[in-house]
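Regression test case RT-17, inverse folding.

Input:
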């Protein structure tokens, strides 16, 4: 019997939620140390957000935010000094206008890459009966990858929407999506997610 060593499909569960990772102005502002130079992930996330709201599934947003003295940044801010730009009150640390959280949508504030590390995200998802996390955001190699990996490790099926994610180069983006798809998540397109959510009420009853 031939066994495929990587890339098995997890599929969707019955209760998905949308998790938008760090869609802050820092990634889309020219001159910012985090500027990706592309707005593709913005358009993809906006499409996911509209579909999730229409389907009535939970929506959660994450952001990175540090105290002004960086005392809560630990070794991460030493390794990535540019993170000092994301202190409380900084304009680039705010959400992009197109993806502002609506009333009732959870905002998870974090200091490290994974949306699960040191936050109440897992407990929030569990309390709402979520079993599948649809993930978009930035950056693919950093906070998206870390969050998708931790979603799997916490028992939530990660569905990463490739064209709703972005990174500093296409090569880094593609390599990390390849590895996520091999080991940790189902990697799909925005259109696939939209098709699935379009009939969500009919599919789940």
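Golden output:
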């Amino acid at each position: 019997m031939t066994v495929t060593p990587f890339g098995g499909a997890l599929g969707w569960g019955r209760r998905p939620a949308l998790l938008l990772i760090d869609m802050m102005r820092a990634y889309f502002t020219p001159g910012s140390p985090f500027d990706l130079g592309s707005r593709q992930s913005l358009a993809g996330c906006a499409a996911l957000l509209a579909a999730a709201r229409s389907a009535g599934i939970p929506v959660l947003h994450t952001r990175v935010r540090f105290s002004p003295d960086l005392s809560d940044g630990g070794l991460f801010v030493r390794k990535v000094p540019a993170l000092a730009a994301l202190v409380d009150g900084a304009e680039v640390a705010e959400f992009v206008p197109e993806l502002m959280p609506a009333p009732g949508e959870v905002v998870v504030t974090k200091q490290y890459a994974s949306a699960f590390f040191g936050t109440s995200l897992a407990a929030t998802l569990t309390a709402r009966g979520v079993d599948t996390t649809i993930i978009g955001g930035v950056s693919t190699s950093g906070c998206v990858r870390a969050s998708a990996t931790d979603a799997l490790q916490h028992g939530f099926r990660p569905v990463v929407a490739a064209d709703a994610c972005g990174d500093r180069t296409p090569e880094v983006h593609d390599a990390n999506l390849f590895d996520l798809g091999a080991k940790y998540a189902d990697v799909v397109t925005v259109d696939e997610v939209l098709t699935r959510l379009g009939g969500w009420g009919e599919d789940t009853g």
